[in-house]
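How a chain folds remains the central question behind the approach discussed here. The record that follows shows the chain in one-letter code together with its fold in token form:
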Amino acid sequence: MRKVGLIILGLVVLLSLAGGGAAVYLLVLAPKPQNEAAIDPSDPPPEAPAKRPAFIPLEPFSVYVVPEGQKPREVMVILHLEVPPDNVPMVNEKMHLLRDRYIRELLKGKPLEVPARFTGKDLYPLRDSLRGPTEEVLGKGVVTQVLLLNIIAQLK
């Protein structure tokens, strides 16, 4: 009786393993049927998915700001350029010219006047002043925007 029970138990385990293997094959490993619809040549081509912009980081720039009622302070600004993916090679190729033009733009004129407790929004005029040099070096429409990513105030 005991031998018959072991044989039946062995058959149940063997059938369970075979059923599990078949299920894995059918649900995971089996090739999926391809639903190929007939292509009509008069149909317009499907819309290409929109390409995500690339963000090119720039090395930090040191700029001077004058908080209300205080002496000028040095602030490090970290900028990124938002660029369509097709324009990335051109931007990288002219990056040295762009950095030179940015430095000249940031050094001309007097320091930016900001409130005593300034934030990134108070430095938007700085970011906006770099749009002109960007278009001057790279051309119009190559860079979507100059983004002010971070500011680091130097403590004295």
